[in-house]
Write a structure and sequence with these properties.
binds zinc ion; about 220 residues; 5 helices; alpha+beta; eight-stranded mixed β-sheet; 18 strands
Length: about 220
Amino acid sequence: MRYFDHSIHFAGGGSQQIPAGKVVCVGLNYRDHVKEMDGQVADEPVIFLKPSSALVPLEEPVAIPVEFGACHHEVEMSILIGEPLGDCTEEEAAEAIIGVGVALDLTLRDLQDQFKQKGHPWDKAKGFDGACPASAFVDRAQVDDLQNLALRLTLNGEVKQLSNTSHMITRVLPLIAYISRYFTLMPGDIVLTGTPAGVGPLSPGDTLIVELVDVVSVTTSVTAR
Ligand code: ZN
């Protein structure tokens, strides 16, 4: 297992490597995905963590476990944090965002369903090694409006997930402020902002195009871990 560094490409040229921290995720943040999961829109954001050991580069083949049942893709906009944020305001959150990217919240769906039924934590289904393939980041300054970006996942030439960050239930700044009431965000931490409808299983041999349209586009493939 190697340590993961986030790469960020700056608007003026040049790039920097930033040691990766934790991954903070939100579940059920797009209504169409809530519906496909037979869920209900929660009163507050549903927050969970992935450890830094879940991070792998999206630009390399995505190695999925094949011994634990279905492994689903969830395409999500990812946000790279550049300053410590504890119990922050939305204004402080806005100033601390340094990068914008795209990531997969890989989910062992069969395991997650079992854990949900038993009322057990779903960490193993969401936080396993390799559960968070993440793209390099684009400088925040290069993106006008975080809440008006198309998000798309194409599997073997077929568009499976297509939505827009305008459809988030809890938008980026209130989400970060909410998270920071419980978990101090540190430089190198990333926030995954939820997936729209169309999640489904991956198989070794699949090809994927994972896009935050006009910001980041990554073509990759799926292998067995
Ligand atoms: Zn997700």
